[in-house]
Amino acid sequence: QVQLVESGGGVVQAGDSLRLSCAVSGRTFSNFAMGWFRQAPGKEREFVAAIGVFSWITNYADSVKGRFTISRDNAKNTVYLQMNSLKPEDTAVYYCAADPARAGATMGNYWGRGTQVTVSS
């Protein structure tokens, strides 16, 4: 089994930045593509960003391109989501996902429990 634990969420104002972290245990981290999804109240979960086994392979939702950056540190078994220029519409629970094959909107063999991000206007 793979365990994913997110951290770094919080309450910020519009224009602020946050960095989310997702620590992975249970399997060889470097063998997994990693991703971030989010779910706002009353909405379906949506894809945010993904990074492949090779760090130069990244994929972003149009709504976050240019503002969010996904990265991974294989030595620390951790994936990050740097979120800049946050907007109120970024408010959601953010989930970390791991997948042995896919790095995009359809990924998700394993999931974390989520971390809340709230952006006030």
Key features?
0% helix; mainly beta; 7-stranded mixed β-sheet; globular
What does this structure look like?
There is one protein chain. The chain is mainly beta and 121 residues long. Helices cover 0% and strands 50% of the residues. The strands form two sheets. Strands 2, 4, 5, 6, 9, 10 and 11 form a seven-stranded mixed beta sheet that branches. Strands 1-3-8-7 form a four-stranded antiparallel beta sheet, with no helix packed on it. The chain is globular. The N and C termini lie far apart (40 Å). The mean pLDDT is 95.
Give the structure's gist in a few sentences.
With 121 residues, this protein is mostly beta strands. Helix content is 0%, strand content 50%. The chain has strands at residues 3-7, 10-13, 18-25, 33-39, 46-51, 58-60, 68-73, 78-83, 92-99, 110-111, 115-120.
> C-alpha Rg, in Å?
13 Å
Give a count of the beta strands, DSSP E runs of length 2 or more.
11
- pLDDT averaged over residues: 95
- In helices, the fraction of residues equals under 10%
Span of the ends, CA to CA: 40 Å
* Major beta sheet summary: 7 strands, mixed
Topology:
Layout: E1 3-7, E2 10-13, E3 18-25, E4 33-39, E5 46-51, E6 58-60, E7 68-73, E8 78-83, E9 92-99, E10 110-111, E11 115-120
Parallel strand pairs: 2-11
Antiparallel strand pairs: 1-3, 3-8, 4-5, 4-9, 5-6, 7-8, 9-10, 9-11
